[in-house]
Amino acid sequence: RCCQTIITFLFLSVCSVNTDVVFVLDSSGSINNADPTNYDKVKNYTRAFVDALIDENPEGEGDRIGVVIYGTFSRIILPLNESTNLDKRSLLKHIDRIPYLRGWTNTADGLCRAIEQPWRESLSVLRLIITLTDGRSNRVSLICGNTTAAAIQVHTAYPPLLSYAIGVANARLSELLTIATTPELIDHLDSFNTDLLTAAQE
C-alpha cells in the first residue's frame, strides 16, 4: 500500500527528530450521513495516531500536535504551541472532546488554518499536515481561495511542510493528489469501518 511508506517514514522519523503534526479533519455533515458513529472513528484515528507518535514530555520539547477541523468554515481546536502545555493524557482527552461542526466541505479553509500554525523553523523538525476527508470540497475559503490554491500554499510554505492526505469513501482522488506532497503520500479507503491506522500499515 502507498500509505505504508508514509507510516513507516513517520515512525522512523519521530524516533530521530522532533515533530510538529497538524491534523486537518473533515467535520462536515457528510461524515455522519452513512453512519452516525463515523466522526467518532475520525477522532479515534487521530487519538490512536497521537498515542503512537507523540512522546509525553513535561518540559514542552520534542513532538507537538495541532488540530484543525472544518465544515462550512474551519476552526482551530488545538494550536501547535498549546499542546506543549498538555501531558499525553490531557492531550488525548482534548482530542476526545473535538466537536462536530456539520455543514459543507471547505477543505481549503482547513488547509489555510493549518498553514497559519506556529510551525518551528528548525530544519531538524519534521513538519507534517495530515488531512482526512470523506468528500469533495464544495466551498471556497475566504482566506486563500479553492482547495488547489490552498494546496499550493501548503507546498510552497516556509519552513517546508510535508502533506499527507487520507480519503475515505467518496473522497475525490484528484483532490487527494492535489493536497499531498507526492502521490505516495495518499491513501484512499472504502469506508470508516476500516481501522485506519491498522490499514495504513498493511
Backbone structural class? alpha/beta
> Strand order within the widest sheet?
3-2-1-4-5-6
How far from one another are the termini?
7 Å
Largest sheet at a glance? 6 strands, mixed
Radius of gyration: 15 Å
Mean pLDDT: 82
Binned strand content: 15-25%
Tally of strands: 6
Specify the number of helices: 7
Task: Provide a compact summary of the structure.
The chain contains seven helices and six strands. Strand 4 (125-133), helix 5 (147-155) and strand 5 (162-168) form a beta-alpha-beta unit.
Write a structural description.
35% of the residues lie in helices and 20% in strands. It starts with a helix and ends with a helix. It contains seven helices and six strands. The protein is an alpha/beta fold. It has a six-stranded mixed sheet, with helices on both faces. The longest helix has 16 residues, at 38-53. It has helices at residues 2-16, 38-53, 88-96, 107-115, 147-155, 173-179, 196-201, and strands spanning 18-26, 64-70, 74-78, 125-133, 162-168, 186-189.
